[in-house]
Design a protein that fits this description.
The chain is an alpha+beta fold. The chain contains two helices and eleven strands, in the order ααβββββββββββ.
Length: 153
């Protein structure tokens, strides 16, 4: 009888621990209770352009972060134009098991650029980035293309 009682108590503890642990995972949980899809964890917003300035923003879900060192921006069209280095805010320092000491971003991340004076028409950019969840799972590097309309006169 004491053995059965011990087993029932152990099972009750397991079920209770599972019920308590589930809410702790909710900031990372998608519809199925797992990690968010990459496009939800790191939501790349439409770029905004004003005259010769460009801003690209991400909305980073709670419990996730983007690596500063994995951000890259490339002009696809028109050919021959290059972006000046992005102006980025200061990030959070993090000791990463793969990359060592890195800088990461959480929440809203805005990358700002000054566009070359001759670049008035529409442009297409390739944006590369990589991020992870705080639970220790990293997503593969991502890339997206952004179409940006011509500057308004």
């Amino acid at each position: 009888m004491p053995l059965i009682r011990s087993l029932l108590l152990a099972l009750a503890c397991c079920f209770t621990a599972g019920a308590v642990a589930k809410p702790l995972l909710s900031p990372l949980a998608g519809e199925e209770g797992g990690l968010l899809p990459v496009e939800e964890a790191f939501q790349l917003m439409p770029a905004t352009r004003q005259a010769q300035a460009l801003k690209i923003e991400w909305n980073i879900a709670p419990g996730y972060y983007l690596y500063r060192g994995q951000l890259a921006f490339e002009v696809l069209t028109p050919q021959g134009f290059r972006l000046a280095p992005a102006r980025l805010p200061k990030g959070e320092k993090r000791q990463d098991p793969e990359f060592g000491l890195v800088e990461v971003y959480r929440g809203i991340l805005g990358a700002e650029f000054d566009l070359p004076p001759g670049l008035k028409g529409p442009l297409k950019l390739r944006v590369r980035y990589q991020g992870c969840a705080d639970v220790g799972i990293c997503y593969p590097p991502q890339q997206q293309q952004l179409s940006i309309p011509a500057a308004r006169a």
